[in-house]
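Good morning C.,

I know you're traveling, so I'll keep this short. The sequence:
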Amino acid sequence: MSRIRCILRGLDVKTYIFLFAIIPMCTLGVYIHGQKISYFLRPLWEKPPKPFHVIPHYYHENVSMENLCKLHGWGVREFPRHVYDAVLFSNEIEILTLRWKELYPYITEFVLLESNSTFSGLPKPFVFNSNRAQLKFVEPRLTYGTIGGRFKKGENPFIEEAYQRVALDQLLKIAGITDDDLLIMSDVDEIPSAHTINLLRWCDQVPSIIHLQLKNYLYSFEFLLDEKSWRASVHRYKSGKTRYAHYRQSDDILADSGWHCSFCFRRISDFIFKMKAYSHNDRVRFSHYLSPDRIQKVICKGADLFDMLPEEYTFKEIIGKMGPIPHSYSAVHLPAFILENAKEYKFLLPGNCMREG
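The tokens, ready to paste straight into the viewer:
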């Protein structure tokens, strides 16, 4: 203690301020904003991925399928391929309805797998099963399966996610998929446009694996973030080789192929559930992030639920996307089912940011 007193007597006022004010404030700042600092400095240690080969997308309702296939450099088939749409389902019943209504004319079999566990290991009810009556229009073409969660505390959520995707491979075989059928691999909220799937099923010589470039929306079709959503893909199925996945599997991507509407929920409670349940639940760093009042304000502002900076690879793109997403007032070229049922789905349309409590 005597040595400490001697050391302290030898310090001037500026040193005291530095030790007992500035250092604690900096430590607190790093604790609160460390994630932002890490994301902002990302370009220093991480290079952008290899660019996709973007395939121009031609479409007009008055142009024949033969001409559309030729414009893409592909041949036209005598009859279309069978198409299987396979998804893992959590609780996004409105977006699932929208997806199935959009794709219904061109899908041979809808395949849906539901677990009683979230990716983060939280128990959940079988939401689809309890809402099945309102989706009865797909019943003749539906293969539905359930799987029990493993509920391992502290495990990386991506392990549970991978476990469920492997189970979805098995469900696809039960559904009857065969070689050269088309398989759509995407999350429920990554919705290919109907004309995109119709094009791919009718055209010959399409790539065996092709990613879909989707318009990237947040909360509703009022907040267009960018057009960089790429994880959705369509595969020409090969027995023993095709595996259901949600990462990059090809260098080919078809431009302007649909919509990705992330966190597009009707109710605030669904936002809270998703924030705690999905694979990136570690982004909920503070309990006040789950406050209903805060979530409502963030939605209407077009800000980030997790108070994060954009996940980009250059300082120019990070700075360009900082702050709230600009409002868009265009409802042109959206899924037809939304506009046909605008009263029911107004929460997805511009100017309707308020959510049910």
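Safe travels,
E.
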